From TrEMBL:
GO biological processes: inositol metabolic process; phosphatidylinositol phosphate biosynthetic process; signal transduction
PROSITE patterns in the cross-refs: IMP_1, IMP_2
Source organism superkingdom: Bacteria
Lineage: Bacteria, Bacillati, Actinomycetota, Actinomycetes, Kitasatosporales
Reactions catalysed: a myo-inositol phosphate + H2O = myo-inositol + phosphate
PANTHER family hit by this protein: INOSITOL MONOPHOSPHATASE, INOSITOL-1-MONOPHOSPHATASE-RELATED
Major enzyme class: hydrolase
Source organism: Streptomyces humidus
Residues that hold Mg(2+) according to the record: E76, D99, D102, D224
Protein name (Swiss-Prot/TrEMBL): inositol-phosphate phosphatase
Annotated keywords: Hydrolase, Magnesium, Metal-binding
EC numbers: 3.1.3.25
Listed GO MF terms: inositol monophosphate 1-phosphatase activity; metal ion binding
Pfam families in UniProt: Inositol_P
Length: 283
């Protein structure tokens, strides 16, 4: 039986092609062309879904499942329809985690800051990821142990420049609890320059490129984080929850959590988010 490593060596280009085709077929024809009836709300006015989201996820569900027989797809829109499907991330089967349009709000408003995210996971371990920004024609990929790349060029985040304030993209207040708001407020301090985040996937790409120092996110949905976290790891970065452990796509994380250009920056941001408490290092 073919291993996942063998599959990735043989079929990564086919996954890339599927991602590009989903965007070309279902997303870009609707970019700046959406009709009112193609846009809906899920949990409220700040949680939008479009026909592009739904149709691109259906396209990828079929294409990715065919590429890796026996795998399952956990997509944002399918989980919204049936939350029980999220439990597949906990199992032994290879799982494709899909966010068809990450940054739907930007997409709806005609901003090019959105992307399609795909990650391959097994036993809770991130194995490979694809981050595609179709309006910018940028594709970032990562394979565990094999590095991170943007359009074929290796990514290396590197440490922040000494002496300047850290730029940190943070969760939007609409998506935070009162406790999380208080934690995020700790970043309003000397030496840190927080700002609201855009598309999570593109913020992770900015870290991997060395253009953003860190994130501080307050939610766990795997489709927003899986692809980007592996990209950051393979570019030399790190991620930490308030427990001092790396973020787990299987859930149960202490929130908010951070991803950063290097381990020292991750520790610094997590330390601030914890209210200055000493973090427990993962064993």
């Amino acid at each position: 039986m073919e291993t996942i490593d063998e599959f990735l060596a043989r079929r990564s280009a086919d996954v890339e092609e599927a991602v590009r085709k989903a965007a070309a077929t279902e997303i870009m024809p609707r970019f700046r062309q959406l009709a009112a009836h193609e846009i809906d709300q899920k949990a409220g006015p700040h949680d939008l879904v479009t026909d592009a989201d739904r149709n691109a996820e259906l396209f990828l569900t079929e294409a990715l499942g065919a590429l890796l027989p026996g795998s399952v797809v956990v997509g944002e829109e399918a989980v919204h329809a049936d939350p029980a499907t999220y439990e597949a991330i906990q199992g032994d089967t290879p799982v494709w985690i899909v966010d068809p349009v990450d940054g739907t709000r930007q997409f709806v408003h005609g901003d090019d800051g959105f992307c399609t995210l795909v990650a391959l996971v097994r036993h809770g371990v991130l194995l490979a990821s694809w981050t595609y920004a179709p309006a910018r024609d940028q594709l970032a990929t990562a394979v565990r142990g094999g590095g991170a790349f943007l359009d074929g060029e290796r990514l290396s985040a590197g440490p922040p420049e000494p002496g300047r304030a850290l730029t940190v993209a943070t969760s939007h207040p609409y998506y935070t609890t009162d406790d999380q708001k208080r934690a995020l407020l700790t970043l309003r301090t000397d030496g840190v320059a927080p700002r609201p985040c855009g598309s999570a996937g593109l913020e992770y790409l900015a870290i991997a490129r060395g253009e953003l120092d860190a994130t501080a996110f307050s939610w766990e949905a795997a489709w927003d984080h899986a692809a980007g976290l592996l990209l950051v790891e393979e570019a030399g970065g790190a991620h930490l929850t308030l427990s001092g452990e790396p973020f787990r796509v299987t859930g149960g994380n202490s929130l908010p959590f951070t991803a950063a250009r290097d381990a020292a920056t991750a520790r610094r941001v997590a330390h601030l988010l914890s209210g200055g408490e000493t973090l427990r290092e993962a064993s």
